[in-house]
Write a structure and sequence with these properties.
Oligomer: single chain
CATH architecture: 3-Layer(aba) Sandwich
Number of helices: 8
Shape: globular
Number of strands: 7
Number of domains: 1
Largest sheet: 7 strands, parallel
Strand content: 15-25%
Radius of gyration: 15 Å
CATH topology: Rossmann fold
Helix content: 40-55%
CATH class: Alpha Beta
Order of helices and strands: EHEHEHEHEHEHHEH
Length: about 180
């Protein structure tokens, strides 16, 4: 079974399409027999994608730091939930479990995870595909900044190609399925 790690927010955001897209992506992954790896929370966009996948009969693995479990937001109905000591261990374990990475709307944690996994690709620690799902233009500013740092010589053309951006998760899943 292929597994996609999805980086996304523990909040729902202000637009209902963030949660709706996450739930639909989770369900679509289950239908395609693609496992979900994510941050292990039961709330926000994270909870929506996990619930969408589980409700459609999919398999979901969460990796969550003990400090977040202590806040009582860990999802209790997953295929597997690994509790780790901290965020560095979380990201490393999510990487180990996954064949590709998707970024959905989220906050600083999502950006941290996305930028780190792209940096690992840049440093040739992996060659797994990285996708940015630009729901309703959520990542427009970030994508513009990535283009800017490329033009300013801080991100080579080769490294600029280490991620792909799509307006919908369906496009990203189709691209992933061709690999």
């Amino acid at each position: 079974m292929k597994k996609i790690c999805v980086f996304c927010g523990s909040s729902t955001g202000k637009k209902p399409q963030y949660v709706e897209q996450a739930r639909s992506l989770g369900a679509d992954m289950a239908k395609r027999d693609i496992g979900l790896v994510y941050g292990g929370a039961s709330i926000g966009v994270m909870g929506a994608i996990a619930n969408g996948c589980l409700e459609a009969g999919g398999k979901v693995w969460g990796v969550i730091p003990q400090s977040i479990i202590d806040l009582e937001v860990g999802h209790q109905n997953l295929t597997g939930l690994e509790v780790v000591d901290g965020m560095h261990e979380r990201k490393a374990r999510m990487y180990e479990l996954s064949d590709a990475f998707f970024a959905l709307p989220g906050g600083m944690g999502t950006l941290d995870e996305l930028c780190e996994i792209i940096t690992w690709a840049q440093l040739q620690y992996h060659s797994k595909p990285c996708y940015i799902i630009n729901t309703d233009g959520f990542f427009d500013g970030l994508l513009q900044h990535f283009s800017y740092i490329n033009k300013e010589g801080f991100l080579s053309d080769a490294h600029y190609q280490l991620f792909k951006s799509f307006k919908t998760y369906e496009e990203a899943l189709s691209d992933f399925s061709r690999l």
